[in-house]
Amino acid sequence: MPIDTAWHTVSLDGQEAEVVLGFRRMTSRFVFDHLHLKASAGDIAHAADYIDQITRIRLPQDFVAEMLDLHPYARVLLAAQGIQSEEVQISIADAVALTFLGCPWPRKHEAVTPESEHPVDRRAEYSDGSQVFGLSYEVFMHKLHRQAVLFMEAR
After folding, report:
1. How far is CA 50 from CA 17, 26, 34, 43, 47, in A?
2. Structure confidence at residue 60 (pLDDT)
3. Deepest in the core among 24, 40, 119, 152, taking most CB within 10 A?
4. CA dist 99 to 9, 27, 48, 64, 76, Å?
5. Cα separation values, 36 from 69, 80, 115, Å
6. Rounded to 5, what percent of the chain is helix, strand, coil?
7. CA atoms of 120 and 109, how far apart (whole Å)
8. Residue in 103, 101, 100 with CA at minimum distance from that of residue 155
């Protein structure tokens, strides 16, 4: 299902809430109705290449397939739409971050500082690699790499 911050979801109001939540409901329904879909070997190879492109972490294709089984939203959308879809790319990025860090991929301008409980910018867009949670993108990627290495070593 589309991942958002609780803060953003609760702050949705009026027509924006109807549109955003309606889209989420429709997408979740599609995924639920198509849980049987499996990504092809070619889709898995494209997903592994995409992960390498955005993270510089080269994961074995069998691991990518297993990871997508743990994240059916990403798996179903990849099988249905292919890697070219921005929605698929976002869901794969989330699957990677959730697998190794336990949090979704950072959204654009999402900055949580020690003195702030809520994101400064309430939009739920995905990070373009500038600032993440008040930390640099490099810090996020360093943590992601470190945890991925530790995870894969224990495999």
Report:
1. 31, 26, 23, 10, 5
2. 97
3. 119
4. 23, 22, 14, 11, 17
5. 11, 11, 45
6. 60, 5, 35
7. 7
8. 100
Distance CA 63, CA 65 (A): 5
* pLDDT per residue of the chain (155 residues) written in tens, 0 to 9: 556 777 778 888 999 989 989 998 999 999 999 999 999 999 999 999 999 999 999 999 999 999 999 999 999 999 999 999 999 999 999 999 999 999 888 876 554 443 444 444 333 344 444 444 555 677 888 999 999 999 999 98
Read off the tokens for 18.
């109807």
One-letter amino acid of 69 = D
Q: Concatenate the DSSP letters of all residues of 17-83 into one string.
A: HHHHHHHHHHHHHHHHHTTT----HHHHHHHHHHHHHHH-----HHHHHHHHHH-HHHHHHHHHH-T
Angle between helices 72-81 and 61-70 (to 10 degrees): 110
> Is 103 buried (19+), middle (13-18) or exposed (0-12) by CB count in 10 A?
middle
- Note the pLDDT of residue 136: 66
Q: What does the pLDDT read at residue 11?
A: 85
